[in-house]
Write a structure and sequence with these properties.
The complex is a heterodimer of chains A (78) and B (602). Chain A has 4 helices and no strands. Chain A has 78 residues and is mainly alpha-helical. Chain A has a single domain, classed as ACP-like (Non-ribosomal Peptide Synthetase Peptidyl Carrier Protein, Chain A, Orthogonal Bundle). Chain A is globular, with a radius of gyration of 11 Å. In chain B, 39% of the residues lie in helices and 18% in strands. In chain B, helix 1 crosses helix 3 and helix 3 packs across helix 11. Chain B is elongated and about 100 Å long. Classes of the chains: A mainly alpha (78), B alpha/beta (602). Chains A and B meet through helix 1, helix 2 and helix 3 of A and helix 2 and helix 10 of B.
Chain lengths: 78, 602
Amino acid sequence: MSEAIYLQLNQIFRDVLDNDDINLTADTTAADVQGWDSLAHINLMLAVERHFKVRFATTEIGSLSNVAELVSLLEAQI
Amino acid sequence: MGNGDDARQLSTHALDLTQLGQLARSMRRLTSLAPLTPFKLAILGSATVDFLIEPLVASGARYGLALEVFGSPFGQVMQQALDPHSDVMRFDANAVLLYLDYRFFKPPQEIGNPSSLQAAVDEAIEQTNSLRQSLRQSGATVIVTTMPPPPLPLFGHLDARVAGTGRAFAESYNTALIRSLSHTSDILLDAAALAATVGLATWHDAPQWLVAKIPFSMDCVPLFADHVSRIVASMMGKARKCLVLDLDNTLWGGVIGDDGLEGIEIGNGSATGEAHLELQRAALALRQRGIVLAVSSKNNDDVARKPFREHPDMLLREEHIAVFQANWQDKATNLVAIAKSLNIGVDALVFLDDNPAERALVRQALPQVAVCELPKDPALYPEVLMQAGYFEALAFSEEDRLRAGQYQSNGARAALEQAAADLSTYLHSLQMVIAFSPFDVIGQARIAQLINKSNQFNLTTRRYSETDIESIRNDPALFTLQARLTDRFGDNGMISVVICRPEGQHWSIDTWLMSCRVLKRHVELAVLDQIMAAASEKEVREVRGRYLPTEKNDLVRNHYEELGFTQICAHEDGTTEWRMNVAGYQAHDLPMVIKTSLRKAP
């Protein structure tokens, strides 16, 4: 299941950030991806919420430190 | 086509936030956005506004604008507006959008105290006015926004009556703001009305406010950006001026040419009839505020005008229609003729038609025309038309009030010039697949229905019962043909029926009818190819056709002539007879895929 989530997340990140070179791994952080600033973070979270039909809590959006944490948040909800 | 045209065409799709962002970034990579009109827009907000920039750039293209957008940094509204050397002042904007959230202002100090409410409103308005005044000095037009009420009730229903609640504060502020506009050149963006339309529960989003100080839900950003673009477009004279209406299944339910005056649904008595009446009411209201109305319909002129003249439930009358185009030419050509006779640009037209294929043709041939994407249900037509913002205006003048009358010309007809559209490209883009087969059991009921209902594209108007059809189907001497057509918009179902009877050395076309929905798509040529191929196979020398005139089939008076038949004779009652040699007949090169299932050998 988590492999499928990574695949979908990767596409969302590529679309939102307009960068087809993005290859997300568990350890990827905002610092590793060009353009992943605070505004892009909001856009990313919204796109992820819309795609997976979930809503993150306010504290969750602010406290993510890498992609693995995002994936486990998603796994808990879908 | 310039880059700007491409961007504009992309922007007319329904785009979500991600897609708006992608389009905006693609536009930024282009060196020129001609022929879009450049416009510099600054957004000054009490909250975060960065998230509006890309959606605005992409939405502006929809209205023919190349927007350059500056967003003020968070929390700097006062500094940016009041310092003459600030970024926003140096940006040299054509317009500044001032978005002040309810959280920006000091709320009334006491609940239930009218003078406390008044003091808070006075202070808030003064604050807003000083920002407006200062921004005006930069030379930019100021766009002010009303305040959507906060989402939370205090008492509940009583909030509206108690001075000092959030609802009462927003209401009083908005009233005072709107009143203050009359002596200025500032423009209003009614954000409170927009929030009310989508609903306050949808408009506000607490997590997004807390996480990023975004003043309203990001889900509403595409809509908000579209509304800002409408206002800017209106400032630049790009608002539409004329609404072009289709008739059958748009202004009324049914097909006037087939169903007749008694058969169409309009007015009280049926839900469908009332839905179409509501659209007429909306069109009439638009006319009263100065929008010109025109008609473009595939119909015979006298047939199309009949409901306007004779149907008691019609709201729209001929005198309301400035240009009335009922003919069998493609709609793109007619739209060009309408624009020309009104002396306005094609880009001032809005086109309303229930038929997706007509909409596709106009979008492709005339991308400057606004084409309203109508849902299936006519009950939703007025809403879709009126919410689309085609006719946004900054003022309503005496001139507007009088305009409708100036165009009053009792539905004049405009002269058509050569076809405006590249029809061949369009026809190929429809991806038509036509399937021919002889009459069969499955198709029998539908064949009988068409034979007994079709009036317009019907050469002989001979009626046969289902029992008759069954014996025709089982008669090996007769040639029968049914045609079904699909295109990229879906299945059009059975669209043509033909019966040929052998008479000596030739075949006589006893029945040939077609659905008017598929006119001008070369379907009649495909049908003729089938008839001639079958005749050739049976070693028939000649195929003969006959046109029997009725009140409703004038459309096909020249059918055989246009197909290349030679006239044999004409009778006094208007009946004409035609012939074509089978030998030497050349099949046509057609813009569709043809599938044939052959008749089994008897």
